DNA sequence: TTTATATGAATGAATG
DNA sequence: CATTCATTCATATAAA
C-alpha cells in the first residue's frame, strides 16, 4: 500500500516521452496495456499511471502551447509563423499494417491550431475583457515576463536508442488495436464506443 | 541570473493575501493575468507565480484546517461547533469596476467544509475491477501490472460514506452551506466570463 | 554547517 | 478534455 503515488523512472519517462513525441496522445486501452507491460520492466507501474500520464502530459502541453500562441499573437497579431514554438498535435493516420505502433503520421504536421482551440476559438482575444480559460494554467505570458514551467526532460540519450525499436513497434499495432491518437474516435470500433469527445454535449 | 524562484515582495504578498482573504481561490486565467499585471508594478512576477501562489496557499490553508479539525475531533469527538476556524471558499463576485483588486465578495461564507472534501476520498479503495470500455475507463486486466483508473467504480457503498459526509455531519454546517462552494464561477460577471469550455452538464 | 521549516514549482490523480 | 486537488520535490531562509 505504500505506493502512494507513482513516480516514473527515468527510463519509463523516456519511453513515455518518446511515444508522446511520436504523437501518441490518446492511447487505447490495449495500447496502454502494452505500454504498461513494457514499462513494468523498468519499475512498478500500472495502467492508470500510463493513462494519466498521457492525459496530463497532453493537457499541459497544450496549455502551454495555447498560452504561447496567445502571447505571441498578442504581440504579433498579423504574423505568427516566424517563430520557434514547439509543434502541436497533428493527427496521425494509422497505417493499415497490423501494428498499432506503426503510425504513419503526416510528415508535416501542420500545427493544427485548430485542435488547440477546437471549442473556443475566441479565446485568442481574451486579453481585455477576458474570455477565460479559467485559471488552470496560463502560467505564462504577462506584461513582459513570460517563461513557462519547464517540463521535465530526460536527458540520457543512450537509453533512448535502446527503446526506439520498441516504441516504433508500439506505435503500430494495427487497426484492430485501434487507431492511435485521433482525438475523435472517428474510426472507433466496437470495443471503443465513442464518447463524443470534442463536442460540448 | 536565473531567477531560480520567485519570491513575492511584501507588497505583492499583501495584495495576494488580500485577494485570498476576499475569497479568491481559483482565479481564472484572465484574473491571473490581471493580477500579474498589477503585481508586476511591485517587482518581477509571472503569471505562473500567481497561479501557483493561489494553488499552494489554498492547499496549505485547507491542509492546515483539515489537520486542526482532525485534531479537534480526536479530542472532542462530540463537540465541535465551539470553534473559530477560518473560512473556506465561496466565489467572489467581481464588482463592476475594472480592477480585480477590489472585489466584492459574499458577506457570508459558511465554512463549507464541504469544499474540503469535495471529491470522494476514495483513497481508501484502490483496487479496480475492470470492464472493458474504451481506453478511458476500462483500465484493468493486464499481465500483472493492472489497474486502470476506477473512475466510477466505488464498489461497496460503505466506502462512499467516508470522510466527506462524516466530517460534514460531525461539523454541522447546515444544509445551506452546500450551495456556496461551487468550483466554478457561477456568479461571474462581465469581468470574468465563464469560458463555457466543456459545458458538459 | 546541519537541520527544520516555509513555500515556490511540478506533476500524479481524479472528477465531471 | 478542462479543472481542481493532493503530494511531492526543491530551494531559500530560519533556527540550532
Any overview of this molecule?
In chain A, the strands form 2 sheets. A two-stranded antiparallel sheet of chain A has the order 1-3. In chain A, helix 1 packs across helix 5 and helix 2 (29-39) crosses helix 3 (47-75). With 201 residues, chain A is mainly alpha-helical. Chain A has helices at residues 10-21, 29-39, 47-75, 113-116, 157-170; strands at residues 93-94, 100-101, 103-104, 171-172. Mean pLDDT of chain A is 57; it is low at 77-132, 140-161 and 173-201. At the A-B interface, helix 2 and helix 3 of A face helix 2 and helix 3 of B. Chain B binds a DNA duplex (16 and 16 nucleotides) through residues 4-8, 26, 48-49, 52-53, 55-60, 62-63, 118-120, 122-123, 149, 151-152, 183-184, 195, 197-198, 200-201.
Short key terms for the protein model shown above:
homodimer, 201 residues, mainly alpha, two-stranded antiparallel ribbon, 5 helices, globular, disordered C terminus, DNA-binding, HD (chains A, B), developmental protein (chains A, B), nucleus (chains A, B), DNA-binding (chains A, B)
Amino acid at each position: 500500500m505504500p505506493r502512494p503515488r507513482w513516480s516514473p523512472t527515468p527510463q519509463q519517462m523516456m519511453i513515455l516521452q518518446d511515444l508522446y513525441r511520436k504523437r501518441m496522445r490518446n492511447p487505447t486501452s490495449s495500447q496502454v496495456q502494452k505500454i504498461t507491460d513494457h514499462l513494468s520492466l523498468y519499475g512498478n507501474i500500472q495502467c492508470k499511471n500510463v493513462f494519466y500520464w498521457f492525459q496530463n502530459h497532453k493537457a499541459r502541453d497544450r496549455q502551454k502551447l495555447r498560452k504561447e500562441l496567445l502571447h505571441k499573437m498578442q504581440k504579433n497579431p498579423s504574423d505568427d509563423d516566424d517563430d520557434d514554438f514547439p509543434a502541436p498535435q497533428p493527427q496521425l493516420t494509422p497505417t493499415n499494417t497490423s501494428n498499432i505502433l506503426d503510425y504513419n503520421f503526416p510528415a508535416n504536421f501542420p500545427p493544427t491550431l485548430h485542435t488547440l482551440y477546437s471549442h473556443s476559438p475566441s479565446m485568442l482575444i481574451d486579453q481585455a475583457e477576458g474570455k477565460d480559460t479559467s485559471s488552470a494554467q496560463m502560467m505564462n505570458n504577462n506584461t513582459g515576463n513570460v517563461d513557462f514551467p519547464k517540463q521535465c526532460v530526460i536527458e540520457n540519450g543512450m537509453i533512448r536508442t535502446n527503446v526506439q525499436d520498441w516504441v516504433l513497434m508500439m506505435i503500430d499495432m494495427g487497426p484492430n488495436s485501434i487507431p492511435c491518437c485521433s482525438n475523435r474516435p472517428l474510426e472507433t470500433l466496437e470495443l471503443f464506443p465513442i464518447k463524443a469527445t470534442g463536442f460540448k454535449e
